[in-house]
Amino acid sequence: MKFFLLLGWLVGFAHAQIQVGAILPLSGALASVGEVQEAALRASAEALEARGVVLEITLRDSRSRPDRAAARVQELLDSGVHILVCCETPEVGARVTPLAAAAGLSTLTLAPSTAADVTWLFALAPEETAPLERLSLETPLHPFGLMAPVGRAGDLAAERLQPKVGAARYPVARPPLTPEALQIATREPASVVVWDNGEGTVRATEALSARGYGGAVIVRADIWDDLNALERAKLTGARSVLSPAVLGYTLSDAHPSKAAVSSFRRALIVVPDGALTGAALAAGAGAWDAAQLIGSAAEQVLAYNVVTDTEAGREAVRGALRDALVTLGPVTGAGGTYDFTEGDFSDGSSSGLQPDSLVLAEWRSGRFRPLP
């Protein structure tokens, strides 16, 4: 294989560090997310030193803007980095990853990827369909009803949640939703999935209650950060599919991510509580796991006494890291379990996060509690 040929070429060289370039939103609209990601990335790299793996991180600020992030790529290439951690949003990724790929640099992206035909792009964030795929695992025993607005998101939910006992689609921002709620409630599904924004979700949930539905209501995970205390109270008992990192100490000891989540959350003691939103925790877990994945790949590469202070050496290390990431197999981190063995990373991109490693949890008494 190409991996072993590259490693064979590297035998006999002196020990070296792995140079990691990172472009994170340290200022601008997403600075709170960047603060969590930076703390997680640095703490994760420090934890790797106990295993004898040294990652030297060169950090650049995207300022939460795609154009600024793109401008930082060449700076990192000039500094000789071997691999890139980047991209707080799909829009940033669409600007950054083609530039990195053109230079032969692999990217571990922390947001869902929308880039097409970009080589060696390893997405750590769940794809948009991942929560729905996780829910679909429940359908054989617990069929769903679906309430969703007309539009792409509703279409996607309807497609992924087959088989289902019924679906009520409604125009966006239509009040009230009691006819649609009645349509679903009378079918008596075990659960109803409400796939809408925060305001629409609260309206749909209240409509279900008004029509006597007493089963479980499952809502999107990305609505919670924008809800106020009263709106959250109205969703008491609602369920969402979450990154294990969001659950923190409430995660079951038996969950495969428990140890990684504990280490990740301890690393965030330096971050103000106000910055620890659900979105920031999920994104921060991606940064923690990115360093751990690079570290695991680096252990294979560094075992062959690599030198990286020449252009040829840098190119060889970049290729060896790419191949090592693909051949790692399943690796469990704070954000879930990743497996890149099935993706076609030589000509395209794919998320390695496995949907079945996400957690279904219930909102009760002001916090999420994982369900069995």
UniProtKB/TrEMBL annotation:
| Top-level lineage group | Bacteria
Coiled-coil boundaries: none
- Cite the entry's keywords alphabetically: Signal
Would the keyword Mitochondrion turn up in this protein's UniProt record? no
Task: Tell me yes or no: is Signal among this UniProt entry's keywords.
Answer: yes
Tell me which positions the record assigns to the signal sequence.
none
Which Pfam families would you find in this protein's record?
Answer: Peripla_BP_6
The UniProt record lists the Leucine-binding protein domain at: 17-112
Q: Which family does it belong to?
A: Belongs to the leucine-binding protein family.
Query: Know the name of this protein?
Result: Leucine-binding protein domain-containing protein
Taxonomy of origin reads: Bacteria, Thermotogati, Deinococcota, Deinococci, Trueperales
